[in-house]
Structure formats: structure tokens, C-alpha cells
Amino acid sequence: MEMHEIRYFLAASETLNFHRAADLVHVGQPALTRAIQKLEAELGGYLFHREKTRVRLTDFGCLMRTHLDEVLQRSETAKRTARSFLSLETASLTLGVMCTIGPLRFIGFLNAFRERYPGVEVTVIEGAASHLTELLTEGKLDVALLARPKPFDHGLKAEPVYRERFGLAFSTGHPFEMRNTLHLTDVRGEAYLERINCEYGDHIDGLCRDIGFDIRSAFRSEREDWILAMIAAGMGVCFIAEYSASHPGVCHRPVVDPEIIREVSLVSVADRLPSPVVSAFAKAVKEYDWQTAQ
């Protein structure tokens, strides 16, 4: 059963005249007649009573008309949906973003993406890097913005987006504000505020142990906004990436010797064929000027 046969039958059932039905679907009458005969053979019964002066639907034809009209409507709906999806007129994207990534750097990009693809609905899921990786591999995320000090697993494809320096965040007026750079050892003697979900936490702890001291936390929180608020209140200092230290009253200075760099990447499952919206999003990420993004 082919869709053009169904269209020809429905046209004939509407006009009850094979000649007018052929004109309606822009084919010759012999082609329409052959298509309807083929449909009758496939369905196993006559759809029309063919009389000398008129054509009437059989009872079987009346029954099939309802079902075949529904088939045609569903086919047209599927075509419209497919066109909308492939042209990104109507599509959705589920994006995972580490909770340790500050939102300000992405506002400009997301706004530009929205202007370019107004039909795409973007859902942002925030979480720790390990949790987002699980959601990504389970197919609950399309792509994710992630970073980690070690290479990603072989099953994941990571495309670098931008790099940023780790440093110490402290309150306005702190003596650190007079310096351009800081060292790991500068954290000694300071009340430390620990970001529980920091994906570089163990890495930084290890670097500190290598030079002979352990970081001891005064406060710990999984909420980035709480940590930043406590820093602004002068309750302590914290190691944090430079673009995430965006809070009134919070200053940031990069750590050097050793310099700690975080590379944020757009991560997807390596062997998963990207949808049109994922491909468009990845292309937009690559083309965006992250160097001047604020």
C-alpha cells in the first residue's frame, strides 16, 4: 500500500467521479483507476460500486475510508514534524552544565543561540561533573559542559570550548587584593571555604600535599552561591576558577607556580550519532568568540 494510492482513493471517495478525482490529484484517469484497483487487490475487497452513470462507495469502501484518511493525516503530520525537527523550527536540547561553572560567561552565548534558532527549547541541567557524566552516558543529556584535571573516558568525545585559570577568591579589602598573583602556600593561615562539588578539589589537595601542607576547611558547601556569599562576607578564601568568581564583593587572583588551568569542554557520547539540534549547538559553540565573552 502506497500513499499515493490512498490519496487517489480518498479523492475518488470525495468526488464520486474518477475523472474529477484525477483532476483533483493532478494525474490521468487511467493512472488513478489502476492505483485504486491495486489498492482493492491489496485490501481484498471492492471499494467502489462502478455503475454506468455513477460511482458509489461500497460498505467496505466506507469502512476503509475512515481508516485510510487517518493513515494519510498521520503521514502528513509525521512529514511536518520531520521538517520542523530537521530545520530546527521545533526541537529540544537537554544541556548538562557543571554547577561549578559560573552562568555569566554563557548568557551571551545562549542568547545568541536563541536568536539564531528560536524554535529550539534548551533545558539546562546543573550538577556535579560525575553525575552529569552518568546522565550523558544514560542518554538523559544530549551534551554537557564539563571539565576535569584528567582526560575524559574513551567513550566520551570532548571538544575544548575555553580555558580559565584557577586562583584564590577573597573578599574586597583583603591583603591579597594588593597582589597580581598568588601561590598555593598563601592559603595557609586563612579560613578555607570548601566547594564540595569542585571537580579540581582532589587535584588541588594533592598539589598542596606535595609541597608539605594540607588544606583544612572552616566551612564546606555544595552550593556555589553560598561559598561566594561567605567569601564576600570575609569568612574565608577559596580556590575557584576565574570566571566563576563573579559575585559582588569577591576578588580573584590567579595561582602561579604551579599554574592551574581548567579546560571546559563540550562533551558527548563518542559513538552516538548527533541529532540536527546537537550538531547545530556544537557548531555554534565552536564559532562563538569565547575570548571576549563576559
UniProtKB/TrEMBL annotation:
InterPro entries: LysR_HTH_N (IPR000847), LysR_subst-bd (IPR005119), WH-like_DNA-bd_sf (IPR036388), WH_DNA-bd_sf (IPR036390). PROSITE patterns: HTH_LYSR. It comes from the Bacteria. One of its GO terms (molecular function) is DNA binding. The keyword Transcription regulation applies. Keywords: DNA-binding, Transcription, Transcription regulation. The keyword Iron-sulfur does not apply. GO terms for cellular component: protein-DNA complex. Gene3D superfamilies: Periplasmic binding protein-like II, Winged helix-like DNA-binding domain superfamily/Winged helix DNA-binding domain. Residues 1-58 form the HTH lysR-type domain. Belongs to the LysR transcriptional regulatory family. This is Transcriptional regulator, LysR family. It comes from Mesorhizobium tianshanense.
